[in-house]
């Protein structure tokens, strides 16, 4: 009896095709991961810009002292700071008072919303052109009046050595008089006067 030479015909090259498909799939996953990473970086940059913008805006609002242009000046300041942090002015929305969140309607608060897009590079093969990125920051003005027992402290000037030696602020917790520090009296001559 004669055995056939080919037991399985027509399967030559299958591993090559499967390997090519697997490499293409892995390349797609790596590319998509890179695009998502870039979108997260864009979101972090936008959040930093929103934080800077809202802090500058609420500071401007706090210093307005009854100026009728206070809200417009605060809005302009927010947009200026967002632009300084790489955000286009058309992507910035400033709400005084905020229109969402816990501070809705509070005229002592400023809300900055940045809505931008992150370009997709590798995901274009899957017909994703852009990833939408939206961030929000809110800051409010408030006074220190409700706090009790809060006192500003400072290091005495003659205790500071400018040769790189650390300045000791407090020696130990058992004796509060040991140390090179003193309490400050705001709007006065100091705690000792």
Question: Overview of this structure, please?
Answer:
It is a single chain. This protein has helices at residues 14-62, 70-84; strands spanning 92-95, 109-119, 130-140, 153-155, 181-183. The protein has 193 residues and is α+β, with helices and mostly antiparallel strands. The protein has two domains: 17-140, no CATH class; 143-193, no CATH class. α1 (14-62) runs antiparallel to α2.
Order of helices and strands: HHEEEEE
Tell me about the largest β-sheet. 3 strands, antiparallel
Integer tally of domains? 2
Helix content: 25-40%
Shape: elongated
- Please give the alpha-carbon distance between the first and last residues: 119 Å
Strand content: 15-25%
Instruction: Calculate the mean pLDDT score and round it.
Output: 79
Topology (elements, then pairings):
Layout: H1 14-62, H2 70-84, E1 92-95, E2 109-119, E3 130-140, E4 153-155, E5 181-183
Antiparallel strand pairs: 1-2, 2-3, 4-5
């Amino acid at each position: 009896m004669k055995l056939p030479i080919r037991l399985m015909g027509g399967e030559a090259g299958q591993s090559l095709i499967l390997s090519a498909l697997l490499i293409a799939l892995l390349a797609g996953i790596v590319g998509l991961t890179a695009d998502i990473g870039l979108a997260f970086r864009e979101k972090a940059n936008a959040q930093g810009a929103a934080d800077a913008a809202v802090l500058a805006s609420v500071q401007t609002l706090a210093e307005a002292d009854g100026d009728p242009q206070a809200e417009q000046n605060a809005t302009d300041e927010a947009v200026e700071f967002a632009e300084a942090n790489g955000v286009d002015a058309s992507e910035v929305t400033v709400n005084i008072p905020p229109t969402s969140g816990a501070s809705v309607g509070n005229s002592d608060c400023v809300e900055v919303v940045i809505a931008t897009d992150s370009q997709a590079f590798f995901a274009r093969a899957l017909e994703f052109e852009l990833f939408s990125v939206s961030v929000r920051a809110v800051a409010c003005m408030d006074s220190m009046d409700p706090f009790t027992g809060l006192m500003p402290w400072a290091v005495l000037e003659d205790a500071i050595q400018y040769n790189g030696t650390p300045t000791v602020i407090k020696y130990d917790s058992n004796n509060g008089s040991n140390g090179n520090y003193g309490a400050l009296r705001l709007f006065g001559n100091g705690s000792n006067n």
